[in-house]
Amino acid sequence: MKWTIYNILFLIVYPFLLPGFLLRMLRRGGYAARFGDRFALYPEDILAKLGRRDSLSDSHAPKPSQFIWIHAVSVGEVQVAGQLMREWRTADPNVRFCFSTTSSTGWKMAEREVAPCDVLIYNPLDFPTFVRAALQTVRPKAVILVESEIWPNFIRRAAKDKVPVFLINARVSDRSAPRYRKAKCFFKDIFSLFTRIFAQSELDRDRLIAAGAPSEIVEVTGSFKFDVAKRMPEKEKLLSSWISMALGKGNGNGEEKRKLILGGSTWPGEDEILLSIYSKLLEAHKGGAALPLLAIAPRHFEKADAVEENIRRAGFSCVRRSRAGDKAEETQERPPVFLADTTGELMGLYALADIVFVGKSLSAHGSQNMIEPCLCGKVTLVGPHTENFRPVMSDLLAAEAVVQVSSAKELEEKILKFAFDKIAAEQLGERAANAVQARCGVVRRCTAAIMEALK
User: At residue 343, does pLDDT exceed 90?
Assistant: First the structure.
C-alpha cells in the first residue's frame, strides 16, 4: 500500500516540477540534450556501449555484467564518486562504470571522471516503469549511491533484480533526520535493501539506524571528502599567471607578494559582505607596501554578472576569469577585484590565497567544501551554517584547523586579524594541512570493502 501511495504522489507532484526542468534547460543549456534518459530512452551509441544491440558484433565490447552503476548529483558527490572510481580502477583495470547524475552541473563534472569505456547517463525518474527499463538496459553488477541519494523505486527494483546496492559517504542532515524518523515505517523498508552503508560519522550512523536501517549493515568510515581534495599544480600556475598578467608590470608594488583574500563558492549576499570587509581592509592597510587583493568565486557561474555589478557598485574594477585577457584598472588605493567565473579552477585559487572564506555558510545554509583550502594550508574561515559538512567540521574544529564565525561582523574581525598577524595565520594553516592529511584513506578502505562484498 505504501508504495502505491508513493507512486501516486509522484504522478501528482511531477507535473508541477516539470516547468522547473524546462526553465533549467533554457538557463543552463545542454540540460535538454539527453532528456530521454529520464525515461530510460537512451541514444544508439549508449545502447551499443552497454551491449544492448543485437547488431553489436565487436567481441571486445564490455559485457553488461561488468558495469558498476554509480549515482551522484552535486559537484562534491561527483568528486566523491570519481575518487572511488579511480581507486577501483587501480585494483581492477577492467572495471566499467555507468555513471548517472540528475543535473547539467553534475554532468559536466562527471564528464571529467568517466573513462572512454564508461557510460554517462541521466538518472531515470523514480517511477517503476522507468527504473525497471533503465536497470534492464544497464544490467549492472552493483549499484553505488553517494551520500543522501535515496531513490525508493530505484533501490527497490535493483534489490528485486538481485543487484547489490551500496550507500557511500552516507550522511543524514539535521533537517532530514526528523523526517526520516517520522517516516520510519517507509524508510526502514528501503534501508533494509542495502547491502552495506558506509556512514560519515557516528551521528550519521545513529540517524540511519533510527530511520530503520539495520545496524549490522551500517559502518562508520569517516568522510570520503578528505580523500577527494587534491592539489592542482597546473591550475595554480595558470591562475597565478592570470592574476599577474591582469595586474601587469609597473603596478607600483615591486615584487613583494600581495596577500589574496578569496571568497570560495559564495552565495548571493556573501560577495557584498566580502566587498565591504575588503574596503575596510584596504583602509586599514594604508601605507603598506603591497595592497592585498580580493577574488570571488561564486557557486553558480550564471550569477557572475550580478556579482560583477556588486563589485563595480562597491567602487572596484572587475577582472573576470572568463575574459582572461582583460587588464586590471588599478589605483594606488583601489586594486581590482578578481571574479573567478569558470569551472574547475577553484582548487587552484585556494592554493594561491592567503585567507579563504568558504561560502554558503553565512547568508545561506549548508556550506561548501572547507577541506580544500585546509589541504592547501590556508587560513580557512566559515560561517555558522555548515550542515552539509557536519562530520568534517567536527573533525576540523577539534583539530583547531578552521575558524567558524557567527556573523558578518565576526568574519570582518577575523579577516583583519589574520591579514596582519602572520604568525597566527601560518600556525592555523599548518594545523589545517596536518588535519586533512591525518584523515585520508577512507576511499581505499571502502572500495576494498565493496569489492570484497561482490566476490
Answer: no
Closest CA to 104 of 22, 14, 15, 25: 25
Q: What is the dihedral of CA 320, 321, 325, 329, to 10 degrees?
A: 30
Whole-structure pTM value: 0.72
SS3 99: strand
Domain boundaries in the chain? 12-228+440-453, 233-437
- In one-letter notation, the amino acid at residue 28 is R
**What is the CA angle 37-265-112, rounded to 5?**
40
Q: How far is CA 123 from CA 128, 148, 154, 158, 163, in A?
A: 13, 15, 10, 14, 17
Q: From CA 194, how far away is CA 197, in angstroms rounded?
A: 7
* Domain covering 233-437, topology: Rossmann fold (3.40.50)
Q: Which CATH architecture has domain 12-228+440-453?
A: 3-Layer(aba) Sandwich (3.40)
- Which pairs with CB-CB distance under 8 Å and at least 24 residues apart come from 316-323? 316/275, 319/246, 321/239, 321/242, 321/345
Q: Which of 36-50, 66-80, 236-250, 399-413 has the highest mean pLDDT?
A: 399-413
